[in-house]
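Ligand: magnesium ion. Inputs:
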Amino acid sequence: MDTKEKLKVLNKKRPELTISAAKKAASTNIEWYHVLSELIDNAILVDKSKCVNVTINMHYNEDNEKSYIEVIDDSIGIPEKDILNIFDYGQSANQGKMLLCKMGMGLKGAIWGLGEFDYLITKTSNGNKCQAQPMKYDSDSDILEYIQVKPSSFELDAQLSGTIVKIKRVNDKLPNWTNQSHFDAFVFKINSMYANLLHESRVKIHISYSNSSGSKWYKECIGSFPLMSNPRHLLNNDISIGFNEPTYIKDTTTPIDKIEIKTKHTKVKLTAWHKPTPNQVEKYFDTSKNKVYNPQTYKDSLFGYGSETGGITIMYRGKYIEFGVEKHASRTENQGIILEMDDDSGLSFTGYKNTLQKNNNYREMLEAVDSFLKENGFFVRSIVGTPSVEEDEIVKKFLEYIQTDSIYLESLGIESYQKQVETWIRTEVGETDIIVRDYNDPEIVTCVIEAKKDRCGGYEAAQLWGYMAYHNCKRGILLSGADEQPSFNVMIKSLKDFCNLPEVEIKKMNVKTLKAGKFFNI
Ligand SMILES: Nc1ncnc2c1ncn2[C@@H]1O[C@H](COP(=O)(O)OP(=O)(O)O)[C@@H](O)[C@H]1O
Ligand SMILES: [Mg+2]
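Predicted complex:
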């Protein structure tokens, strides 16, 4: 039997919402400024050439009746025909024009989640100014109804188009800040969420705050862009600072810059980089005077060095929606990771755009990102200030490097690279990284080379000495990403004296002596 026939509609009703239900629907445990940010989102345009101004005025008053938050923008406004439709859940107006309008929840969440909706006034460039507000209600158990009324004030008269949303009785959410540092911390949060969009001049955000005890602050938001240091492409050898670009994929010169990570159900774009240390930035700034390396700006930056700013940052259409995701031990203070998602990413938002549902797709995606980064040596730990690359990479790059340099080939006595050079030789005493054999008598080893990622001390010297002894070779090179410690030379001297072998020759080469800028840039 056809189920449609069986279903006989006897009566119909569309759900109604009481004021208290609207408030409940808007309540979440996400931070209030994330909810507020939905109103900033609403003004930003798809059109990249347009920069919208958003002004947030906040007033905290001991008397809740006088407290408010208002958000004013000079975006395109809402057409009069839609002024009441925008209060429907899941509805969108201005189809295709707004960058961050999506689920039809944000506005409703903000006007009932931050306090109580006072009014919305809006104006399009060729339409009338119009105003919407809730129908007067006496108690929270009244049914919520929106009405359009004649605009009663001069607000928006000075601009061509735009929207004002005013929310009253906000004392439950808006803090009573007594110190400018509280206000500054709030501005920093907004700076962070919109760092990219502010940087690209898609939006300008002005924030003012006042309270009934007389405090008054104002600030304009500033955008920022991560400062990077590519460990495989050094900019300044002496301080081991890399070019300001994402880290390369291992064994290539392709930066991990919007690499697509795909799993069965998800896809995201990944950007990953290593951060310079504050010390490197300071030193480089001293010599270059390049503003990009301003140490203070770097210190205050959203992507500055340190574990507080670590973990994955999730971005949706230029807005940073989550920070510090999956912050665990393997992500050190010098690693920056951004995942960019779009509507077809297979990931789902919660009611607000600021949090993702932590479902199976989400976990699948995080795992894929983690293993991609692992495979590409991104999580290699290294001593502060040395390049985060693995030993085998140092070995490979060294071999490539000497082959293109006749002076190196000659100094190592190499006539036939194929015949004489061998790598990762397993022996009873361990694995030797590189040995060079005599051209005429391959039984004779003429040089032993040991690579160390970020150490060059007495222990490393002794290990190299051991390999040299095993291969019966009096010439060795310790290849390291780091400078030598005094113990390195003391150990060599002690061994020479003890074994009575003054003729042994051990050289230290680090990424710097090999002109690493070129060294790691194939
Ligand atoms: N400041 C604004 N400027 C222009 N349009 C707006 C503005 N605020 C809201 N709108 C319109 O109202 C609709 C509903 O907003 P909202 O409830 O935040 O849902 P969403 O943004 O997810 O669509 C949006 O689709 C947008 O078209
Ligand atoms: Mg919205």
